[in-house]
UniProtKB/TrEMBL annotation:
NCBIfam families reported in the protein's UniProt record: PRK00431.1-6
UniProt name for this protein: O-acetyl-ADP-ribose deacetylase (Regulator of RNase III), contains Macro domain
MF (Gene Ontology): O-acetyl-ADP-ribose deacetylase activity
Boundaries of every Macro domain copy: 1-179
InterPro entries per record: Macro_dom, Macro_dom-like
Species lineage: Bacteria, Bacillati, Bacillota, Bacilli, Lactobacillales
Length: 183
């Protein structure tokens, strides 16, 4: 299953590179410095160009579970929402709440900045080591709850961008489980 409708918003899963997504904003899985790194963060900085780093320097970092907005510069997306996922430390250090907060705060920023379409990477599931199936349940569950609780949300489309087959399979499984529960 690659699509799920929640209220007036379409959720999709897509395999590919988030830097190429034609949406109003892409979400970056950054670190607290906001000064770049590897993984999707490195790819976004490379594609956006050096102005992105200059803009990030003015933000004074970002706490884990929070989110901050910059322009997208050379990206197709006009904006980047930088959020910092938790490092997985066994699951007993508030990781689930912090990961949910990344999605929640990113959605709030989108709504308060006129952003209708949004793409998320699988935050924390790379270098930060969050177990994939737990992370996708939190990602989709938090987005769904947000949209159900915010009927005035202006977000019409959300893409979960998957860089590999395992991530794609985990999102598809999560979509399927939610659909079955709704049936
Ligand atoms: N498009 C979409 N997804 C991608 C891309 C891409 N171009 N590149 C990687 N991914 P990660 P984290 C996937 O490690 O775990 C950085 O150094 C990747 O396969 O990028 O939150 C930051 O500066 C995985 O599924 O982010 C932090 O220090 C997902 O994106 C740290 O890594 C997230 O993997 C954050 O670690």
């Amino acid at each position: 299953m690659k699509e799920l409708q929640v209220s007036h918003t379409k959720l999709h899963v897509l395999k590919g590179d988030i830097t190429r997504c034609e949406v109003a904003a892409i979400v970056n899985a950054a670190n607290e410095s906001l000064l770049g790194g590897g993984g999707v963060d490195g790819a976004i900085h490379r594609a956006a160009g050096p102005e992105l780093l200059a803009a990030c320097r003015l933000l004074n970092g970002c706490r884990t579970g929070e989110a901050k907005l910059t322009p997208g510069f050379q990206l197709k997306a006009a904006s980047v929402i930088h959020t910092v996922g938790p490092v997985w430390r066994g699951g007993t250090h508030g990781e689930a709440d912090l990961l949910a907060s990344c999605y929640q705060k990113s959605l709030e920023l989108a709504d308060s900045n006129g952003i209708h379409t949004l793409a998320f990477p699988a935050i924390s599931t790379g270098i930060y080591g969050y177990p994939l199936s737990q992370a996708t349940k939190i990602a989709v569950g938090t987005v769904k709850a947000y949209l159900e609780n915010q009927p005035q949300s202006i977000i019409t489309e959300i893409i979960f961008v998957c860089f590999d087959d395992a991530t794609l399979a985990a999102y598809e499984q999560t979509f399927k489980e939610l659909e079955r529960r709704n049936a």
